[in-house]
Amino acid sequence: MLVISSQPSLTLAQRKNEVQQNQAELLTKKGHEQLNQGQATKAYDTWKQAAKLYRQRHDSEGVSGTLINQNLALQALGLYPRACKTVLEVLKMDKWICDSSLNQSNELTTEKLKAAIHQVDPIPVNLLGLHNLGDDLRLIGKLNESVVVLQQTLSLVQKVMPEKDTSNIKLSLVLSKQYIYETVRDKYYSIEEPVFKKETVIFIQKQALKLLNNYQSLIDIQPTPILIKLQAQLYRLSLLLDFEKWLIAESNSGNGQLAAIKTQIGQQIKPSIELILKNSSAFSDLPASQSIYTKLNFANSLNQIPDERLHSVAVQYAESALQTAKSTNEQRLISYAFGTLGKLEKQTQRSLNYLEEAMALAQSIQAWDIAYQWQHELGLEYYKQGKYDKAEKAYNAAINNLTQVRDNLLASNADLQFSFYEKVEPVYREYMRLLLSSPNPNLELVIQTNEQLQIAELENFLKCGKLDFVALNELQGLPITTAIIHIIDLGDSIEIIAQSSNHSLIRKSVDAKLIRSHVNNILDAVQSSRFFSSTNKEIILYYQKLYDLLIKPIQAYLPSSGTLVFALDRSFQSLPMDLLYNGKNYLIEEYSIVETFGSKIRPPKSLYQNKFTALIAGLSKESPSFNDKNAPKGLKALREVAVEVAQIKKETDSSTVLLNENFTSLQFKQELTKNDFSIVHISTHGQFSSNSDKTVFLAYDKVINVLEFDSLLKQKTQFNENTIELLVLSACQTAKGNKRSTLGMAGVAARAGAQSVIASLWLVDEDSTAILMQEFYKDLKNGLTKAEALRQAKLSLLSNPKYVHPYFWSGFVLVGGWL
Fold it and tell me: Tens of pLDDT along 352-400?
């Protein structure tokens, strides 16, 4: 009886199970149709419903499959971090893998990642998940990790499913490597140091040629599906155009060894285009959203070639993409299509109409990451037409949107990714030029825009999110003897804007040609190994000319003494302002001097609210870190560091000393995180560069670069809310040829949470440095501000006949807070 009466309920359960199975499968299919039509939001919601049904059935493989599908929808929506975390849920891997704030890739991370992958059961759904994870990591900017995951996935698939076509994984792998190439190519435009520039040139050349061959292999292999071939052809064309542009730039800078490669690359472009056009029917076989993006990317590529026929073809592809986008009713896709047409259109009014439509659509869905692009294009068009009010509004809107999204500068569709120096920086500088072209320019807005640019550049350099800075003009109760001097490089002109303590502003403009040669002469002199042997007269001559151009025009508006705060742009950042000479005195003899980054600092806080405690780390002898690939070349032991460390220890209330073998990266990290130090003094070799990888200081066992140092300080704040009041980097130097050393120093200060940084611009004399530091800490303990204590320490050396040469005292600069 029990058996007989239980059978009907068992049958009902089976039927319910079958119904749920059928519903889940139908929803899964429906979601794919929606995604293929460009309806990513609807697809995501549909797959969420499918996942619910699979969970009710306790079907783990079904749940995994729908989560992977949700990952695809989130990618299409530009929600890359969420997409990445979704696929981790399938793979049961730790969340740190998708944490884009952990941006320091190293061998330890790679091994940890490989170990995590080896824990994944290599069933088909998990292998698909790993492939998606590799794509997600690329999209959130973790490029090295993306390559590792895709290489491991390819190896696993070839081992577990040898008959399976792997061309899609290979395409993803080559694309991730192309992103690495693009990242380095972007760095190329900002790196100034000849040694690092040469290394970058070699890498770009080798990587581009290797990638072109990789794409060609995918195109040539017969089993490769036609859609994979089409994408490989499009990526290859994009790379050819980008590489040719770089080759031209490098050739124009004087590199005559690239002529043959440039010719070879140029000859491949038109045949590549014809091959794509020959197989143009393949565009229609792609899912709707993919078809739209590939057509727009192809149109953008064609538009880079000065050929009327190809321009017409580009317009046709963009118009076709627009029609497909309209059929999906997805505002983001339609906005991209209108915006691309706006850039392609030569007739001004039609171009404006397209761009305005694109901008309105982007704003309607709050897609600020694409809205800014169309606002920038509109600003350019309005400016050309003399519609300055409209141009100003467009630029202002573009910058406001950039401010909102600059912590994640990847575009919604990573195929339309952009370079900071090519696509972001020009928006700010063009806007400042526009503002200053007015008969009565809004100088406060110019300063604000320059601040935004400098901070955005710093965040890009450090690959970090928003920094906790305040503008100097927001500070209350500044002494009447404080003046802020903004020096802004706008290409053709150098703008000098002086701001007094009562916030009144004065502007002077100087032809950049009159200044650049003096800046370059000074930079050559102070970064030369012969600087010490150069005569005072030689240095004074350069700096007096610079004083006459920069300071003399605003001298009447400055206090007669007090503090000068310099907000320096570009090439001025590696010049010690102390040395500006008025014909009688150096500037340091009349003012205490501080530099800020974009005229912003961390909220001021007096050093004396805390106990005068210090962590003092020093390296006085050769160590294993001297051989690190990122260490400066030709290093020698700093014998007097032990003396400097001992003298500083005497001036503190309490201190912890790490010297030589005790100054390991691990020991430094442990002391920094577990104890509360108001001062961190590091006396060791170091280097400031326009390349964050090369901005380093040496511990005994290894170099610590600026990003690793940031990570250390983040851990400190987890244990202790008190930030570092003063960070001193003694015996460091600016990499030869670098004009933006403050980027490195302010980077250390900003990301470390230090309110102030004192650092040396060149490898200073050991004996004089020991004296200077002893005097500085003595005056600091006696109540002087950081800026005035450093000034008095420098004047004590200047008054000593043995150390009167600028080499001994002018290399130390104070960056950040000066109180």
Answer: 999 999 999 999 988 888 899 999 999 999 998 889 999 999 999 999 8
Alpha carbons 233 and 216: distance in angstroms, whole number: 8
What residues contact 414, with CB distance under 8 A and at least 6 apart?
Answer: 138, 139, 179
**Cβ atoms of 616 and 658 closer than 8 Å:** yes
Structure tokens at 722: 């008190």
Provide the 10 A C-beta neighbour count for residue 365. Answer: 13
Helix runs in 527-664, H state only:
536-550, 641-651
Q: Measured between alpha carbons, how far is 219 from 224 in angstroms, rounded to an integer?
A: 7
Cβ atoms 787, 814 nearer than 8 A: yes
CB 582 within 8 A of CB 551: yes
Residue 483's nearest CA partner among 601, 604, 593, 569 is 593
User: Which of 692, 763, 740 is closest to 595 using CA atoms?
Assistant: 740
- Sequence length of the chain is 819
HEC profile of 401-412? HHHHHCCCCCCC
Q: Which of 297-311, 412-426, 513-527 has the lowest mean pLDDT?
A: 412-426
DSSP bridge partners of 682: 617, 729
3-class secondary structure per residue, 25-47: HHHHHHHHHHHHCCCHHHHHHHH
Judge whether 79 and 367 are in contact, CB under 8 Å. no
Q: DSSP for 430-457? A: HHHHHHHTSSS--HHHHHHHHHHHHHHH
- pLDDT of 280 reads 87
Domains of the chain: residue spans and CATH: 2-77 (no CATH), 470-601 (3.30.420), 607-816 (3.40.50.1460)
Specify which residues 681 forms β-bridges with: 616, 728
Q: What is the pLDDT of residue 270?
A: 94
CA distance 784 to 491: 39
pLDDT bucket at 2, cuts 50 / 70 / 90: very low
**Alpha-carbon torsion (547, 550, 553, 554), positive or negative:** negative
Distance CA 752, CA 711 (A): 8
696 pairs with which residues across the strands? 687, 705
Rounded to whole angstroms, how far apart are CA atoms 353 and 116?
Answer: 51
How many Å apart are CA 52 and CA 56, to the nearest integer?
6
Q: What is the pLDDT of residues 785-805, one digit of tens each?
A: 899 999 999 999 999 999 999
Residue labelled with tokens 């031209």: 248
Q: Which helix (H) or strand (E) holds 319?
A: helix 308-328
Kindly tell me the burial class for residue 550, based on how many C-beta atoms sit within 10 Å of its own C-beta (0-12, 13-18, 19 or more): buried
Using only the alpha carbons of the chain, give its radius of gyration.
Answer: 30
Cα-to-chain-centroid distance, residue 115: 29
The strand ranges marked E within 536-664 are: 562-568, 591-596, 600-601, 613-618, 654-659
Distance between CA atoms of residues 484 and 499, nearest Å: 5
Q: Please give the structure tokens belonging to residue 295.
A: 């057509």
Torsion angle of the four alpha carbons 401, 403, 405, 406, in this order, in degrees rounded to the nearest 10: 140
Q: Which residues contact 68 (CB under 8 A, 6 or more apart)?
A: 87, 90, 125, 128, 129, 132
Q: Which of 295, 369, 298, 375 is nearest to 332 (CA)?
A: 369
The pLDDT confidence band at residue 757, using thresholds 50, 70 and 90, is confident
d(CA 772, CA 626): 26
Phi-psi region of 603 (alpha: psi -120 to 50; beta: other; left: phi over 0): beta
d(CA 501, CA 797): 30
Tokens linked to 787? 């800026």
CA distance 73 to 14: 32
Whether 576 has a pLDDT exceeding 70, the answer reads: yes
Among the residues of 58-189, which ranges form H helices?
60-76, 80-91, 107-118, 124-139, 143-160, 167-188
